[in-house]
Design goal:
Layout lengths: L2 E6 L3 E2 L3 E10 L7 E7 L3 H24 L14 H19 L5 H10 L6 E6 L3 H5 L6 H5 L3 E6 L17 E7 L8 H8 L4 E7 L3 H8 L7 E5 L1 E5 L2 E7 L2 E4 L4 H9 L4 E5 L4 H8 L5 E5 L5 H16 L4 H11 L14 E5 L8 H4 L13 H23 L4 H14 L9 E6 L1 H6 L10 H13 L4 E5 L11 H9 L3 E5 L22 E3 L12 E5 L14 H11 L5 E3 L5 E3 L2 E3 L17 E4 L10 E4 H5 L12 E6 L7 E2 L13 E2 H17 L10 H21 L3 H24 L6 H21 L1
Parallel strand pairs: 1-5, 5-6, 7-8, 7-9, 9-13, 13-14, 16-25, 16-26, 17-18, 17-26, 18-19
Antiparallel strand pairs: 1-3, 2-3, 3-4, 10-11, 11-12, 14-15, 20-24, 21-22, 22-23, 27-28
Helix pairs in contact: 1-2, 6-10, 10-11, 13-21, 13-23, 18-20, 21-22, 21-23, 22-23
């Protein structure tokens, strides 16, 4: 429930003043009120002004309905104008506020303002038995005007809770709508408004007899709302409704059936008709929860506008009181044609009964209202959602989170669907059996004799490019002049060298002497701190002392050779980046998403592995020499030749290696195949290269997820609900990052996840202890 203020004006009257005046403040979830006391001086002028207001209003109203051709009784006051009416309205406004701003009442006013925030929702109830006090337009009090989330109601000093009888639960609000005598008014509009309500079940009684109305009030299913549209009036504190052209009824005449309906769940009565305070006073004796009536006579159009706005706001989730305030405020724009329209609606409240929402009337038993993201909560949420991500970003920039982020990246890579083999590649492996079967033994794992036979066999089927991923820093033996000639003249053959850097090979490994420099590619790769290969070094300027003078990697040279025969040229972009066709290979730099600290030398790109299983067709040297392969695997393809033997120790860790124990490494030739496939797939298949957000984009991403977590913390009342919502956001965040990775995007999952969890907990704790 929202906060509740009850101001008691029972002891005194307008002529003698009120002493004492008590104000009780019930705070949310606290059954014991805070009480303040004061007094109010005599104010007979208010009574006089309101009576004058009534007389002029009634005269203006009669004049209005007369223009519609409806006969009315004369009020005895003829020479009035809207100017007179505006003056008396202003005088009444000033008199009420002067009275409530009096010195003796100021302690109550000040105490209430100390306890209430401008963005808090609360109710103000004026408790009085005096008929005129109840009738006063209390919404004119500047205290009510000052607080936008409050509304005022009146109550009698006698109230008690209703003992409810069992009621069948439904998912709809049950409304009994009495459409009474409609002479001179258009009740059909009221019916249309009720019929358009969602989650409502309405029974319409059109000009019913007393027996018919009584029968429906005794309905066993019970009602939630009693609605009346038609003619009504109040005389001597007693009201009556015209249920049909010939019959009128008082509340007393329906006492038994109404009492039963209230015990069966009837909580709200709406009299969208003239002068209904007398009806409300009688009905309040039956302890109904809330009643809406009109202070004075009301034009038909104004009644319909109020009903439309009130039911619209109430059924859409606004509280009962705020829905009334909203609908009443909407009437002010019509006051040029209908003076004092916004003064007419009023609420009569049984203080012992809580106000209910439309959702609770539908059968939802949870009394907790949906929290409001107040300005204070929003400020806290925004600040925490900026500070926490800023702290995380700072820690991240130092590299402390890098390994965790890379592990999260690896896990998403492994979850991607397998893309199958790249049919443009063939990998020929030199197995341990192939090495042992060779007659000639040399420094290389592939002898001159075997290499010559292998190249002769492959040349028959015309591969587009051949890459030898085996070091040969020595010349071909003189016994094999054909091999030496082949290496010198075959423009499709590309060999490797090593730039250097290791202790054993500080100056690198030279390429085969027979190969021209433009057909050489370096084999060097870049390792992360955990020795996993996640980047591809495409180009670098060799050190002057290096034996390897190639500026491009083996995989880039092979891809470039293959694509050249597709008519795709190699170029350097305006920014100095490598370019093949329309695809520019933007190099990564420090920082790059999860990489915050690494050696960014040369032209590196993120390595987008194609498959966790088999990158390309694989055959051994023996199978090729024995014709145990399909020639179509070779024709017009890229052929990579490399060692797959434990003795060569040419194995590497990949993101897929981490999924097995012990780690499953791949051979160097398969690593090169993945790199070649990434390049040609990007150019020919538009397969996305891995991309990242700019630094500011990642910060916005992290702050955005944290802000959502903060808002969820505000809206979740229980720890269980909070845990469920945060867990759901984590799952959604992971899903978004994974889906974007399928399209090449590497998003900052780990810092975002930490940000949303820490922000959510921080906002939740701040909210709980504020």
């Amino acid at each position: 429930m929202s906060k509740l203020i009850v101001i008691s004006l029972e002891k005194g009257n307008l002529n003698d003043g009120f002493f004492p005046v008590t104000a009780q403040l019930w705070e949310t979830n606290n059954s014991r009120p805070i009480k303040f006391t004061g007094s109010l001086p005599p104010a007979p002028k208010i009574a006089e002004l309101y009576k004058r207001f009534q007389l002029i209003y009634q005269a203006l109203h009669k004049r209005f309905v007369s223009r519609l051709g409806i006969e009315v009784e004369s009020t005895g006051l003829n020479n009035v104008s809207e100017v007179d009416f505006s003056e008396v309205q202003e005088q009444l406004y000033e008199a009420i506020n002067s009275w409530l701003n009096s010195e003796s009442f100021r302690p109550i006013d000040q105490k209430l303002r100390e306890k209430l925030a401008l963005n808090e929702e609360f109710q103000v109830i004026i408790e009085a038995s005096d008929y005129l006090l109840q009738r006063l337009p209390w919404h004119l009090w500047n205290f009510i005007e000052h607080y936008q989330l409050c509304e005022v109601a009146v109550s009698t000093p006698r109230y008690e809770r209703v003992i409810r009888l069992p009621k069948e639960k439904t998912n709809k609000v049950r409304i009994l709508a009495i459409l009474g005598n409609s002479q001179g008014i258009d009740i059909q509009q009221d019916r249309n408004i009720l019929e358009q309500l969602r989650n409502a079940s309405t029974v319409f009684l059109v000009e019913p007899s007393r027996q018919e109305l009584d029968k429906w009030l005794w309905d066993e299913q019970g009602w939630d709302i009693l609605f009346f549209a038609g003619h009504s009036q109040s005389e001597n504190d007693r009201g009556q409704i015209h249920i049909n052209p010939t019959s009128t009824l008082t509340i007393t005449e329906l006492k038994k059936s109404l009492s039963y309906a209230i015990s069966r769940g009837l909580k709200i009565a709406i009299f969208n008709s003239c002068d209904g305070l007398g009806l409300a006073r009688q009905l309040s004796d039956l302890q109904i929860s809330q009643i809406i009536v009109m202070r004075e006579e009301i034009p038909d159009f104004i009644a319909q506008e109020f009903l439309k706005h009130f039911l619209g706001a109430f059924s859409e989730g606004k509280s009962f009181y705020l829905a009334v305030r909203y609908a009443r405020s909407r009437l002010q724009g019509l006051e040029e044609e209908f003076p004092a329209a916004s003064w007419l609606p009023m609420i009569c409240q049984n203080i012992a009964e809580e106000t209910l929402t439309w959702q609770q009337l539908c059968g939802q038993t949870n009394k907790a209202t949906f929290p409001i993201l107040t300005a204070r909560n929003l400020k806290i949420t925004f600040l925490v959602s900026v500070l926490i991500p800023s702290l995380i970003t700072g820690v991240r920039s130092l590299g402390f989170m890098q390994q965790w982020e890379l592990s999260a990246f690896d896990s998403m890579m492994r979850m991607r669907p397998d893309e199958g083999v790249d049919k443009r590649l063939l990998v020929i492996t030199v197995t341990e059996a192939d090495i042992q079967a060779q007659e000639q033994r040399q420094k290389s794992s592939l002898s001159d004799s075997t290499l010559q036979k292998l190249l002769q066999k492959l040349s028959i089927y015309k591969p587009r490019a051949i890459g030898l991923d085996i070091y040969r820093d020595f010349p071909v033996d003189s016994q094999y002049p054909d091999l030496a000639n082949h290496l010198r003249t075959d423009n499709n053959f590309i060999a490797i060298c090593q730039l250097g850097g290791s202790k054993q090979q500080a100056v690198g490994i030279s390429p085969p002497p027979e190969i021209s420099p433009n057909r050489i590619g370096f084999s060097d790769v870049v390792f992360d701190s955990d020795l996993v290969i996640r980047r591809n070094l495409l180009s670098i300027t060799p050190e002057p002392e290096s034996n390897c003078k190639s500026s491009y990697s083996l995989n880039f040279q092979l891809a470039r050779q293959y694509l050249a025969k597709e008519g795709i040229k190699f170029d350097i972009s305006d920014k100095g980046y490598l370019q093949l066709g329309k695809i520019v290979f933007n190099p990564i730099d420090v920082p790059t998403s999860g990489y915050q600290q690494f050696d960014a030398k040369g032209h590196q790109i993120l390595l987008n592995y194609r498959s966790s299983r088999e990158i390309a067709k694989q055959v051994s040297v023996a199978q090729v020499l024995n014709n145990q392969f399909n020639p179509n695997w070779v024709k017009d393809k890229i052929v990579l030749i490399g060692v797959d033997s434990q003795g060569a120790k040419d194995y590497f860790l990949t993101p897929y290696s981490m999924a097995t124990t012990p780690y499953q490494q791949i051979s160097g030739v398969l690593l090169q195949a993945n790199m070649v496939s990434q390049i040609i797939s990007a150019v020919l298949d538009k397969r996305p290269l891995l991309w990242i957000l700019p630094a500011w984009g990642e910060i916005l991403w992290i702050c955005g997820t944290s802000l959502v977590a903060g808002i969820l913390a505000v809206y979740s009342r229980s720890l269980l609900k909070f845990a469920i919502l945060i867990s759901a956001e984590l799952v959604i965040l992971y899903g978004c990052c994974f889906v974007l990775l399928l399209y090449g995007g590497w998003m900052p999952f780990l810092p975002s996840a930490l940000g949303l969890v820490i922000t959510g907990i921080s906002v939740k704790n701040t909210k709980n202890y504020s």
